[in-house]
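Re: export button greyed out
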Amino acid sequence: MSQTSTWDTDRALARIQELEHLPGALLPVLHALQEEFGYIDKAAVPLIASALNLSHAEVHGCISFYHDFRDTPPGRHVLHICRAEACQSMGCESLVEHVESRVGVKLGETTADRSLTVESVYCLGNCALSPSVMLDGKPYGRVSNQVADFLIDGVRRRA
Amino acid sequence: MSVKVFVPCDAAALSVGADAVARAISEQIAARRLDLTLVRNGSRGLFWLEPLVEVETPRGRIAYGPVSADAVPGLFDAGFYEAKPHPLCLGPTEEIPYLKQQERLTFARCGITDPLSLADYISHGGYKGLQRALTLTPEAIVEEVTKSGLRGRGGAGFPTGIKWKTVWNTPGDQKYVCCNADEGDSGTYADRMILEGDPFVLIEGMTIAALAVGATGGYVYIRSEYPHAFRTFRRAIALAYENGYLGANVAGSGKRFDLEARLGAGAYICGEETSMLESLEGRRGQIRPKPPLPAIEGLFGKPTVINNVISLATVPIILDKGSDFYRDFGMGRSRGTLTIQLSGNLKHGGLVEKAFGLTLRQAIYDFGGGTFSGRPFRAVQVGGPLGAYFPESLLDTPLDYEAFAALKGLLGHGGIVVFDDTVDLARQARFAMEFCAIESCGKCTPCRIGSTRGVEVIDKIIAHQNRPANLQLLDELCELMVDGSLCALGGLTPFPVLSAIRHFPEDFDKPAPKPLAHVGERAQETQQWR
Ligand SMILES: Cc1cc2nc3c(=O)[nH]c(=O)nc-3n(C[C@H](O)[C@H](O)[C@H](O)COP(=O)(O)O)c2cc1C
Ligand code: SF4
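Workaround output, generated via the alternate export path:
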C-alpha cells in the first residue's frame, strides 16, 4: 500500500467540498487531505481557510498542533513503533534501537530511498501483546527484532 | 443448520495473525465442502490465547488457541468443528478460569456476537435498556443512573447521574452527548474492544443518555491510533440508521438522535474533555478554563454530556436490569464493575471485568499469571501515564477509587502495566516528564516549561550531578506543577515521578550509567513471535 501521491489542487478541492458542511469541519478535512496525499501540502492552507472561513494562521496552527498531520510527504510506507509504558515494560526501546540501525534513520525520519518512514507512537491499545507496532495501518503484536526485520524487509523490497 | 466457527476481528487478535487464520479456515471449509459458517466476533479479551478460535456445539462454545494459520489444516484433520480433541483445545470457552471468574456486565456480549450484526445484538439482550428508558421520564432515567452508583470510567470517577442531571436542568435549544473514545493511557484498550467488539452497546448507551438530558446530537471522538475501531464504529452507526435506531425517529419513539464518529489526530491532551471539545469544533486541542462546565456550555456552546466509552456502554445494562442489580457489585463508594486491563510484562494480559475490590496482587498473579519474562516482579503502574508506580509492598491495595487516592495514586481508566526487575524507575520518572513535555497543550507555564525542566533535572540526577540538590529541585518543580497547572496533565505528571522516588529510592542513587541503558532490555530477549 502506497502512502503518498502528488499534490493536485482539484482533487484537494473535491475532498474539501465533500466535508466543508460539517460543523467543526477542520479535522475531518485535514484527515481527508492527508489520506489523499499522505501529507498536507502548504498549498492546501489557503484553500481550507477560504472554504471553512478561517484564517491561514488558524489552519496552520491546527496542522502543527496535532502529531498526526505532516506538511511534507512521508516515505511510501510508514512504520509506527509504540514507545509507551506497556511496550517499555517489554523492551520497546531496544526494538527502536534495532530498527533505527537496520534502516539507518532515526524515528521521525524517512529512509534515503523514500521507501519507509519510521515514527514513534504513544500507545496503539495493544498493551497485552507488547511490544506493538503498526505498519501502514496494520497492527502487529509481540514484535521481536526478527519480526520487525521481516516487516521492514517486506515493504522495502516491494517499495 | 450450519455450524458457526468464530475468529475475532479485534485489532489485538489481528496483530497476531487472526486474518490469516480466518483465511486458512475459509480455504479448508471450501476444500472439504463442510457446512460451516465463519463469523468474525469481537475478542473475549484473553489476549495471550489470540487468535482464539471457537466452535459452536451442543455443549456451548469450545475454544482453541492460540491458533496460527499453519495449525488450521491440523485442526480440521482432528475434527475441531465437531469439538474433537486437539492439543490447542481449551475446552468450553466459558469454563476457562480467567473468564469464568469474571463478572461481565459491560462486556456481556463482547467476543460472543458478530459486532456488526444488529440481529445478534438484539438476540443477546441488546436494546432492552433503551426499550425500558423509552417508558421512563428523563428524570427517572437520570435517577436510575444516579442510584446505580455509576462513576465515570474515563479517569476522574465523577458520578455519571449527577453530570446528566446538570445537563437536563440546563435549558438549551440544542444539547449534545459526546463520547470520549480518545483512550490515550498506555495499558488500556477496553474502549477499543467495545468499539470493535460490541459497538451497538455504545450507540444504545448514548441514545439513552440523549433521552435523559434532552439531547438530539452526539459525537464519538475516536483516537486515530485506532483505525479499525473507527471503521467498525462508523459501520455500526450506518447500520443503526438503516434500521431506525438512529435518526429522526429512534426505535419508533418519535425522538431524534443523530450520531457521528470523529477521528482524533494523535494528541493525548484531546482526551481531556474541554480539549476534546475544542478539537471537535475544529481547533487546536487546547484546554478551556472551567467554569463554565461543559454540562452547561459544552460543544458549540451548548449543554453537553461528556462520558467515557465504558461509562456509556454500561448504561444499557443498568436500565435493563435496574440500578439495584448494578449497585450490588463493588465496594465502598466504587459501585459496579471495573474493567481492568492487564498489560505490559504479564503472562496472561487481558481484560478482566470484576466488581471493584479485587486486589492488585490478585489481578497480577491470579489473573495475570506473573511476569511474561519469568523474572521477578518489580513495579506496577496503574491508571496510565499520570498514575503512580507501586512496589510489591502495596500489592494488597484493593482496586477502588478511594483506596488508590489515599496512596497518591489513581485508578484512572483501569490500566495495569507490570514491569519486571529490569525496569529503572529513574528512567520511568524521566519518561513521565518527557511525555508531559511532548503532549502539553502549551496553555500554562508550569506544565509546558516545568516538564522540560523536569526532564533536565532527572537527567542530572541520573548522571550523578549534585544529586541531593537536584532531587530537592525536582521536588519543588513537582509541587509547582501540581499547584499551578490548569489541567490534570501538568497537575498529575508529578505523581508517577514522586511515586518512583518514594518507593524506589535506590534507582535514584545508582552510579552514573555509561551509555544510555534502556528499559526492559532483557525482557526483549525472551520474546517470541507466534
Ligand atoms: C490529560 C487527560 C487525558 C484524558 N484522557 C481521557 C481519555 O482518553 N478518555 C476519557 O474517557 N477520559 C479522559 N480524560 C478524562 C476526561 O477529561 C473526562 O473526565 C471524562 O471523559 C469524562 O467521562 P466519564 O465521567 O465518563 O469518565 C482525560 C483527562 C485528562 C486530564
Ligand atoms: S497543564 Fe499542560 S496540558 Fe493542561 S492546560 Fe496546562 S499546559 Fe495545557
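The radius of gyration of chain B is 24 Å. The button fix ships in the next patch.
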